[in-house]
Amino acid sequence: MTAARPVSFGIRNQNNGAQLNASSRTSLEALLGGALDSPGGRRPFTDGATVVRDIDAMLLAASTALTQWRFEAPSSAPAIARISASFDLVASKATTGAPAPLSGFAGMAGIPMRTVFARRTAAGSDDGTLRVGGQIRAPQKVVNVSPVYPQEAQDARVQGIVIIETKVGADGSVAEAWVLRSIPLLDQAALDAVRQWRYSPTLLNGAPVPVIMTVTVNFTLSDDEPRD
Q1: Is 19 domain-assigned?
Q2: Which pTM value belongs to this model?
Q3: Do 159 and 93 belong together in one domain?
Q4: What is the DSSP string of 123-161?
Q5: In a domain, 226, yes or no
Q6: Residue 104: left if φ>0, alpha if ψ -120 to 50, beta else—which one?
Q7: Phi, psi torsion values for 142, nearest 5 degrees
Q8: Phi, psi of 103 (to 5 degrees)
Q9: Among 216, 121, 206, 214, which Cα is nearest to 167's?
Q10: Most-buried pick from 31, 106, 163, 169 (CB within 10 A)?
Q11: What is the mean pLDDT of each run of 10 residues along the chain (228 residues)?
Q12: 192: domain CATH number?
């Protein structure tokens, strides 16, 4: 699988049964900011920061697992399939549903139709990973690697910006990277480059810590060279 990105997600409060659905992290934060106030003045989700943190951890865990799946060669590219992931925080596990092909696949084989992966397979509060923002400053890039513009994308006159979220380790290396906004013909080239970037360590109370941050890779055909 070249890349995986969320298109929608939902969460349910097991204590009171309240549910919310969102199509992006921004819309989720807007909902948690007050749109869910109940007539009695109480919010079904009182700790918005915890909800966002758990959603981030689940999205990263799903992305990390799904990008390791392998499909048979599609009949045409780019091929797109939709896969659902359901997390049970009480049982500390998650399951994925059978892939639903949307385009490019004549059939699917070579992968389990249902798989199980652990809740904490990726960055979360357990390993001290922090999200850049507020008092957590973005680290400075010290090693840059420009992506190679795929010939197929150039021939198809495909250009634009790929948005990638990364986990930068305490040593400044890119430990993980996954696509948030996809341009299918450009995603892999962007990921291959970003995974070679290095940053200055982010310090918290004088100690280096891993962080999650968003980066962009800009592909333009003006000079046939991608820029970041």
Answers
A1: yes
A2: 0.48
A3: no
A4: -SGGGT-EESBTTBPPPPEEE--PPP--HHHHHTT--EE
A5: no
A6: left
A7: -115, -20
A8: -165, 150
A9: 214
A10: 169
A11: 74 74 75 54 65 75 70 69 77 70 60 32 55 86 95 91 91 89 86 95 90 93 60
A12: 3.30.2420.10
